[in-house]
Amino acid sequence: MRGPGYVLALSALFLVPAMVAGCGGGSGGSINVFAAASLIEAFEDMQEVFEEENAGVEVRINFAGSSTLLTQIRQGAPADVFAPADEEKMKLALREGLVRDPRPFAKGELAVIVPEGNPAGIENLGDLADEGVTLVLAEEGVPVAEYAEKVLENAEAEYGEGFAGRVLDNISSREVDVKAAANRVSLNEADATFVYESDITPDLERRVEVIEIPPELNVVATYPIAVTTAAQNEELARRWVEFVLSEEGRRILESRGFAPAG
Known about the structure:
- By secondary structure, this protein is of the alpha/beta class.
- Strands 1, 2, 3, 4, 7, 8, 9 and 10 form an 8-stranded mixed sheet that branches. A two-stranded parallel ribbon has the order 5-6.
- The chain is elongated, with a radius of gyration of 19 Å.
- The chain has helices at residues 4-24, 40-53, 66-74, 87-95, 143-159, 163-168, 178-186, 202-205, 234-245, 247-255; strands at residues 29-36, 57-64, 81-83, 99-115, 135-138, 171-175, 193-196, 208-211, 220-228, 259-260.
- The chain folds into 2 domains: 4-106 and 223-260, D-Maltodextrin-Binding Protein, domain 2, CATH 3.40.190; 108-220, Periplasmic binding protein-like II (D-Maltodextrin-Binding Protein, domain 2, 3-Layer(aba) Sandwich), CATH 3.40.190.
- Helix 2 packs antiparallel against helix 10.
- This is Molybdate ABC transporter substrate-binding protein.
- Keywords: Metal-binding, Molybdenum, Signal.
């Protein structure tokens, strides 16, 4: 676990620009958005549009695994908005008084990716249990890893009791988040991993092959968003949340492979 020094360093990273922005006055301001790594492309698109539409505003986004983000917020990192990749992390944050009024804003499903050329010959979920297959997965507690385990448990109805355990025995490494796991596969350093369908960007798709998960075995990931109770700029944080939930925000999310939450 990272110690207090890590949180102090992270706080300095976000607070120094905030102090400079505060001295400038005007109608601008800044917020710190803590968002799941799987939201990188969508939130960077939103960041560009939001800053263009709000002169003088700066949106700083800290992308990481949802469990890492929650730990950082618990330890006092300066987050104005929290957007994890699952509802459980948000429920924990709400229970601990770290956020208020969470709202779902996007959904997604999982897929399996393999390196270009599929050297291990993986054709379906069942092949992930084969001897010699190397699977990489995000760290325990990261939503995509938890969702993957649910998919494997669902697949026992088709591949038999103990299937999930046999697949998990093939894990060769745990990565910090879904993007890191996908990168290992794209570099042919592992035979397969689980990702969100929205992670399969055109750039990644050129370097991997996609193994679809049957709908009856797949799971739906729900992304919630909330302003933190320690927000330094609550008004601007709420404006960001409303933008994410707006029609414009929905269009950006859909363009990046996410489905609307409702």
